[in-house]
Amino acid sequence: QVQLVESGGGLVQAGGSLVLSCAASGSISAINAMGWYRQAPGKQRELVAILSSAGTTDYADSVKGRFTLSRENARNTVWLRMRSLKPEDTAVYYCNADLLPLGSSYSSTYWGQGTQVTVSS
Question: Are the C-beta atoms of 9 and 117 separated by less than 8 Å?
Fold first, then answer.
């Protein structure tokens, strides 16, 4: 019933910019946290940026000052604005949300299907 719909991704040159978006759809009571992870070939999945329901945002050290995560007023969509992209940013980016479905007593974690970001040098 609940799903995360991603948009964005693509191929850009080093120093360029890209914007990713993720919308949580379905019957949702509350969103505890929402953000983005990424996974490069042969490497572990890592947190890129995540926004809590309290409004605090955590960023990976490697993207601080370059990436900005924001949430729309309705609090069901997040935007990741990526600037000054580097080849090491190349990865599959996955939207992630920890949320409480309407009528449920427990929170659950949801994942988007992933979108490829490739940065050429």
Answer: yes
Distances (CA, A) of 42 to 45, 91, 107, 115: 10, 10, 31, 17
**62-93 pLDDT, tens digit each:** 999 999 999 986 779 999 999 999 999 999 99
Euclidean distance between the first and final Cα of the chain, in Å? 41
Question: What is the average pLDDT value for the chain, to the nearest integer?
Answer: 95
3-state secondary structure the chain: CCEEEEECCEEEECCCCEEEEEEEECCEEEEEEEEEEEECCCCCCEEEEEEECCCCEEECCCCCCCEEEEECCCCCEEEEEECCCCHHHCEEEEEEEEEEECCCCCCEEEECCCEEEEEEC
Q: φ, ψ for residue 88 (rounded to 5)?
A: -70, -10
